[in-house]
Amino acid sequence: MQLMILDDRRTLGDLLRNRMNELGIRQKDLMDERLTTTTISNIITGKKNVSKKTISYLCQKLDWELEQIPQYLENLEQIKIDQSKQIRLQLKAIETDVGSKQALEKIKEIISSDDPYILATIEYLKGKCYARKGKWERARDHYFYSIRFYDAHPEIRNSNLKSASFNELARVYYNQNQYEEALKCARKGKECFIQNGERKYFQFHLQISEAIYLDNLGLPVEALKVLEKMWKYQSEIETETLLNMYSLQSILYNKLKLYDEAVKNIEVAIEIARLGKHYDHIFELWTTLGVSYKNLGNIHFAKICFDTASQLQDKVRSKHLLLAYNYTESGKMYLSERDTKRASEVLTNAVKLSKKANDGTRQLEAQTALGECYLLQDRFLEAVQQFHEAYGLANKLSFLEQECNLTLKLALCYEGRDIVKYNRYYALFYQRSVQLLSGGEPIMLQVSKSFPQPEREIQPEPPEG
């Protein structure tokens, strides 16, 4: 055994380094006529050009006997196991409160380890810390590092850290309005998920996220299919994700004009959210209920719902995002009643809040509605400005259907006012329409002086791990 440990100089070096740390001894404290700093360094770094006698001499200076190295090694292995357990517990504690200001500093203070599970978890948590700060590039880098550690070490396969990292990567892309990339990551996370592994909740996080991204890409039927597969596991899903499912299903029902089904769905969800004091969900559900009643033609009920949601604004966390949703929908309601003064007030706030929330989808809808409101007030230049900004955003987000509608609105704005711009926007409308039709997704474009706009509703946030 002694010969074997002498052959494994790296393990021996680790053992002696650990002994020095235990005794609080530095290399210069061990120097004498037989031991130079170079020799000591060669021993603890595992170099093989040091004799057995010299190693034995160093052991004696550390109050060890070379013959007892196997026993010391066994003790060291136990120390490493204990340290690994301690670090894992520390990481779990950090993950519990990863949103705190001290989380990143606590991660940096963790002692070095060669445990691949720990290394992958550290990168994953660093990614979450930077994502909370809105530092998307740095967050992405750390998630990819975590995935690389996972792929290089099959022994940590059951940790599901790869699926967790893909889930968080998807959230990063989602927050940057890159929905196609978000969808790709969510699907990759689903593919590599280990059913009997750790972090079992991620299989549901990834599925609800996939449905959210599909909806953002204008594929509500596909999103609904994903949700339908999830309901049979309802008893296994935690409340937060379950409420996301109810919220998204209600939104999809509204988009598919199944308003009565949406109302029934929301009424169940509101009770669950109310009992658990999930105020963000309560706010969102009451707003969505208002949309359902508005679409059913019951404006009185819709106003009650929108007002009920707005009274909860001091209790919600995602204030900018949720208020933008409420203001956009209530603004559109006032617009349908031709109450343009109230509509312009509310929609102006919706645009500001959606920009603060960096919610491209909501901003696009709010600006389109505000443009329609200005047009009804004969505020031509302000209407054109809103439609033009909305068109640029739709182009950036690759929302081809919205591009079609906005180029048509801009063409109609210039009709009878500026023949050159009218022809330019009408030609652009024609190009976008052909592009959309050639993509195999034909749409019916409504042309009228009231500028109807397809409804888009807020989606629940993809769940964080």
UniProtKB/TrEMBL annotation:
<keyword id="KW-0963">Cytoplasm</keyword>
<dbReference type="GO" id="GO:0005737">
    <property type="term" value="C:cytoplasm"/>
</dbReference>
<keyword id="KW-0802">TPR repeat</keyword>
<dbReference type="InterPro" id="IPR011990">
    <property type="entry name" value="TPR-like_helical_dom_sf"/>
</dbReference>
<keyword id="KW-0677">Repeat</keyword>
<dbReference type="InterPro" id="IPR051476">
    <property type="entry name" value="Bac_ResReg_Asp_Phosphatase"/>
</dbReference>
<comment type="similarity">
    <text>Belongs to the Rap family.</text>
</comment>
<dbReference type="Pfam" id="PF13374">
    <property type="entry name" value="TPR_10"/>
</dbReference>
<dbReference type="InterPro" id="IPR019734">
    <property type="entry name" value="TPR_rpt"/>
</dbReference>
<dbReference type="GO" id="GO:0003677">
    <property type="term" value="F:DNA binding"/>
</dbReference>
<protein>
    <submittedName>
        <fullName>Tetratricopeptide (TPR) repeat protein</fullName>
    </submittedName>
</protein>
<dbReference type="InterPro" id="IPR010982">
    <property type="entry name" value="Lambda_DNA-bd_dom_sf"/>
</dbReference>
